[in-house]
Design brief:
single chain, mainly beta, Immunoglobulin-like, five-stranded mixed beta sheet, four-stranded antiparallel beta sheet, 50% strand
């Protein structure tokens, strides 16, 4: 079963059925799984008995919730009492980081007087299906023993499809050309 792309910390559930097509009652049991992504799946039932005349089918709710990123292909095995064959159920997909965008690709402060503050506003929009907890920083800021960049709304929880206004104040400590990068860290992602 291909579950496609799913956002980290987003929960997805599926209903799967296990059915007895034989001529005798059958006890089934899910074999334990210990892989990094396998442990992110939970099953509403891990064993049961399938009858011939009644209870021919068991419906199992499978829930997936991952806090790690990456591609996965997990095969779960079900042992059938009295049989050397196992039933298998494979899930594949890709856990992706939340997505967002800024209103500006480049924040140009223009010519700024040495040690005089200048401010610019940008807007950060959460374009993913999950809320994000973000933190904004400029790597290397503070090398002059004081920060040159200050932010309003530098840390917050941004709900899905919402936008945050961020004001950046720049006070240069050196008379030079600045070419810096603004970094957004996402809690649980990096």
């Amino acid at each position: 079963m291909d579950i496609g792309d799913i956002f980290v910390t987003s929960q997805k559930s599926f209903d799967v059925g296990i059915e007895n097509t034989g001529e005798i009652d059958c006890h089934w049991k899910l074999i334990p799984y210990e892989t990094p992504f396998g442990s992110k799946f939970s099953f509403s039932k891990t064993e049961g008995v399938l009858g011939v005349k009644e209870n021919l089918r068991d419906l199992i709710k499978v829930t997936f919730l991952s806090d790690i990123l990456g591609e996965f292909s997990e095969t779960f095995r079900f042992a059938l009492e009295g049989s050397s064959e196992m039933l298998t159920l494979t899930f594949k997909g890709h856990v992706v980081a939340p997505t967002f965008r800024f209103s500006e690709e480049i924040i140009d402060f223009g010519r700024v007087s040495f040690r005089f503050p200048v401010k610019r506003k940008v807007y950060l929009t959460n374009t993913s299906e999950v809320d994000i907890n973000y933190s904004i920083r400029v790597p290397g800021d503070g090398r002059a023993l004081q920060q040159e960049f200050r932010f309003t709304n530098e840390k917050a929880c941004l709900k899905r499809d919402k936008t945050a206004e961020i004001e950046i104040e720049f006070v240069p400590s050196f008379p030079q050309v600045y070419d810096m990068v603004l970094v957004v860290d996402l809690a649980g992602v990096g």
